[in-house]
Amino acid sequence: MSVTAAKGFEASGVVAHLKSTGAKDVALVVNRGRSAAAAAVFTSNRAKANPVIWSQQVVADGQARAVVLNSGGANCFTGAFGFQTTHATAEAVAEALDVSAGDVVVCSTGLIGVGDQTFRDKVVSGARAAAGELHAEGGLDAATAIMTTDTHPKQAVVEGAGWSVGGMAKGAGMLAPGLATMLVVLTTDADLPAERLDSALRQATRLTFDRLDSDGCMSTNDTVVLLSSGESGVAPSDDEFATAVTALCADLARQLQGDAEGASHDIRIEVVGAVSEDEAVEVGRSLARSNLLMTAVFGNDPNWGRVLAAIGTTQATFDPYDVDVSFNDVRLCAKGAPDRPVTEVDMTPRALHILLDLHAGDAEATVLTNDLTHDYVHENSAYSS
Amino acid sequence: MSVTAAKGFEASGVVAHLKSTGAKDVALVVNRGRSAAAAAVFTSNRAKANPVIWSQQVVADGQARAVVLNSGGANCFTGAFGFQTTHATAEAVAEALDVSAGDVVVCSTGLIGVGDQTFRDKVVSGARAAAGELHAEGGLDAATAIMTTDTHPKQAVVEGAGWSVGGMAKGAGMLAPGLATMLVVLTTDADLPAERLDSALRQATRLTFDRLDSDGCMSTNDTVVLLSSGESGVAPSDDEFATAVTALCADLARQLQGDAEGASHDIRIEVVGAVSEDEAVEVGRSLARSNLLMTAVFGNDPNWGRVLAAIGTTQATFDPYDVDVSFNDVRLCAKGAPDRPVTEVDMTPRALHILLDLHAGDAEATVLTNDLTHDYVHENSAYSS
């Protein structure tokens, strides 16, 4: 159930002393298979970290042999020196594995602005050490090494007919559209060319990671990469493969949501009756990003008024006085007026389902988010100190 | 220094038992002057409360005689019954003052969804009682009666040459663009027709209340209304009047910022070097709305990396690698790379100045906001319980 589940992959995780805790902080995933097909999606933030700028070039040709990842520093806004650090990290892996540096994806996570000579030395030596520790059971070590404020490693696998796709993920805050502080490595032994990997990956991320909006903030470093070893010798259909990758990404996205910084509720916002899927997503996001609603949820207050106040700021097609709002299946607002009493809603479970019927069309979408809590404020005000 | 500073106005504030604390909760401001010219701006939220829908019609003809305001219930999403409550409130004031109900602006603030028969009875009898308490020194009572989570009343006055303009405001959370949970009544004895009041008011709010973005949330009830009695007999020039109204609104906006729910920092975000004022505002707002940045500020952490991550999500014209960021005049980031050490910034004062130079043009704008604190989470998670 990891990044080494599919045939042809090895992984490792080592201590490079980037984290002050002495925990593992450099991970490596290597594709030893007959194929080196790869696809990736990156943050849509225009402020991109050096590893993102590098890795976009690496996967441009649809080929990659390895992914090296570090926690303990984002290597973002660290100047030309920082980009050279990313290059040096890729070179170190390339030399150790006897592959081209141009086939080594680099991912970093941690504080922005951290990337001095000490950082470089640690990352590069960590990358070399990780290359010496590779093994077919190394998935958990790798998933552990990429954790930042995550409380546990995230892994998943989906089995196909004679092939599989597995993966690991990290990301605890800044889970926002277009991906955010999220590093995900997916591996498969399905034998598919890069363009089919790319198509399946984009379809999957659009419906999963892109709809996970924990705090509305978008990272500079997000990367989701999919490598194929081709070692199963099986080429599933596009539908079959995309379905599996989507299921895998959905599993990992739920794990990320469940471990979001300081959260006390995992909220599933389901918007139905929209005129288009895009508008349903827009409306869902407006709830996820309402600090007033998200603090109310933390206080176990099914505050449907804040739902309506939030959606009124969108451009989506609906009449605010024709909207129904339910919390955990209790309809509190019907056609913009109070319906069942709020005391009927049990807000104590961690899982919360907010259902919004816009009565404007037939489209729908679901957005996942978390509440805004004291612990969120604490973790994020103390993060860099 | 209040809503009764200008000649021709009376005001009052009474206890109508809408607030469980027994504090004043219904206010009335009446224009006794020879002119009844009026202008107003309202929330841009599409989810508008009943008093907003009513009051937009009242001021459509540029005339108003009175403004009645209640705290203790927003009368929003309360169905047809709620709209009838607003109408009944205006009728009660009209009858007591012998004016037309169509010249009575109604403003409400408090919880959405509250508006039953008890609420109506209290608001209507409160409005009648307020009409019986009107006097020329009643400004402070009125400013006190509109408070919700405000810790103190907000009033200001600006003196012109032979005329003046004064006002009161409430609003502690949900201060967001397009106005938010903000009720403001401005009064002047300058003798100007409604269209000139309107022009000055829109100019002033665009530069003041519209650039106050405390938590990114936008209310359903925001109203800023300006009444002229004409009693000074003086007609200032457009420039002179707009300058005074802008200064008045800026004063009230700073008072609102200084009393924002749970805030520990008053943040002035100054964006320079933008290609247009609109883009400068867009960039400034992206910082104001970054929970990660606003929690960092709460933790006295001058986290310039989160500034860059936030602005990278905008569509404004600039190169993220050509941006300078200063906190309290210490340049921490120059051209997208670390500059002075963060330890040089003293974050302990309540006032914080974040300066962002986009190096893309000559336009600039300032946005005011507050940090995201434990007290914000506490107040907003407990607000309705």
TrEMBL record, chains A, B:
Q: Which family does it belong to?
A: Belongs to the ArgJ family.
Which Gene3D superfamilies does the record cross-reference, listed alphabetically? ArgJ beta chain, C-terminal domain, L-amino peptidase D-ALA esterase/amidase
The reactions it catalyses are: L-glutamate + acetyl-CoA = N-acetyl-L-glutamate + CoA + H(+); N(2)-acetyl-L-ornithine + L-glutamate = N-acetyl-L-glutamate + L-ornithine
Q: Where is this site: Cleavage?
A: 180-181
Q: Supply the SUPFAM superfamilies for this chain.
A: DmpA/ArgJ-like
How would you summarize the oligomeric state and partners of this protein?
Heterotetramer of two alpha and two beta chains.
Enzyme Commission identifier(s): 2.3.1.35, 2.3.1.1
Localization terms from the record: Cytoplasm
What name does UniProt use for this protein? Arginine biosynthesis bifunctional protein ArgJ
Q: What function is annotated for this protein?
A: Catalyzes two activities which are involved in the cyclic version of arginine biosynthesis: the synthesis of N-acetylglutamate from glutamate and acetyl-CoA as the acetyl donor, and of ornithine by transacetylation between N(2)-acetylornithine and glutamate.
Q: In which pathway does it act?
A: Amino-acid biosynthesis; L-arginine biosynthesis; N(2)-acetyl-L-ornithine from L-glutamate: step 1/4; Amino-acid biosynthesis; L-arginine biosynthesis; L-ornithine and N-acetyl-L-glutamate from L-glutamate and N(2)-acetyl-L-ornithine (cyclic): step 1/1
Return the Pfam families for the record: ArgJ
Q: Where does substrate bind?
A: 148, 170, 181, 261, 380, 385
In which organism is this protein found? Frondihabitans cladoniiphilus
